[in-house]
Amino acid sequence: QVQLVESGGGSVQVGGSLRLSCAASGRTFSNYAMGWFRQAPGKEHEFVAVISNGGVTTYYADSVKGRFTISRDNAKNTLYLQMNSLKPEDTAVYFCAADRGGPFNTNYLVLPARYNYWGQGTQVTVSS
């Protein structure tokens, strides 16, 4: 069993920044890719970013590229998402998720079904 706990969400004005954290426990964190997704009211889960198990390779949704940075600290079993230049359309519940395992293939890692463990989510609200 894997436990993922997000923190760091909150309310911020347009152009502001937030850093989300995701603390993981229950399996060897460094063996698996990790992703961030978000869900706005009435919408499906939307891929945000993913990072390889060693932290060398990252991939972002076009909507956040250049503004968000995903990182991880395997010694601390923690995943991060630094969010800068926030926009109202970034408002959503943000979830971290653990990959099922397998090749780092972004065609599949953008899909929620590729992940078998999810955190409870943290709310991010960006107001103008």
Describe the structure.
The chain is mostly beta strands. The chain has one helix spanning 106-109; strands spanning 3-7, 10-13, 18-25, 34-39, 46-51, 58-60, 68-73, 78-83, 92-99, 115-118, 122-127. Strands 2, 4, 5, 6, 9, 10 and 11 form a 7-stranded mixed β-sheet that branches. Strands 1-3-8-7 form a 4-stranded antiparallel β-sheet, with no helix packed on it. Strand 4 and strand 5 (46-51) form a beta hairpin. The longest helix is centred in the last third of the chain and has 4 residues, at 106-109. It is globular, with a radius of gyration of 13 Å. The mean pLDDT is 96.
In short:
With 128 residues, the protein is mainly beta. The chain has 1 helix and 11 strands.
Question: Could you say which structural class the secondary elements and strand pairing correspond to?
Answer: mainly beta
Mean pLDDT: 96
How many helices in DSSP terms?
1
Give the termini distance in whole angstroms.
40 Å
> How can the largest sheet be summarized?
7 strands, mixed
The ordered string of helix (H) and strand (E) elements is EEEEEEEEEHEE
User: How many strands in all?
Assistant: 11
Give the overall shape: globular
**How many whole angstroms does the radius of gyration measure?**
13 Å
Helicity level? under 10%
Strand content: over 45%
